[in-house]
Specification:
With about 80 residues, this protein is mainly α. It has three helices and no strands. Helix 1 (about 1-10) packs across helix 3 (about 60-80).
């Protein structure tokens, strides 16, 4: 569902698991959900990543909009499953 959603928004992209080294609220969902994915559908550069949770944290508006579109597709596919 995630791969399909990302390809619908971003085109033919490689969707692979990765390592998330940051804290995530999803660690709390294990008690109420069978699956919790630590997932980020936003296109980010190294400079974007370096600024997370720091002064002047930002990303491009177009990249933010595309990430929101990816979440919308994931929700649509999940609701119809």
């Amino acid at each position: 569902m995630i791969s399909k959603s990302l390809r619908e928004v971003y085109g033919e992209v490689a969707v692979t698991p990765g390592l998330m080294i940051a804290g995530s609220d999803s660690r709390h969902y294990g008690q109420i959900a069978d699956n919790a994915y630590r997932f980020n559908p936003f296109k980010l550069t190294q400079a974007d990543l370096a600024g997370f949770h720091g002064a002047n944290e930002k990303m491009k508006v177009a990249d933010f909009v595309m990430g929101i579109k990816a979440y919308i597709q994931i929700i649509r596919h999940g609701a119809s499953a």
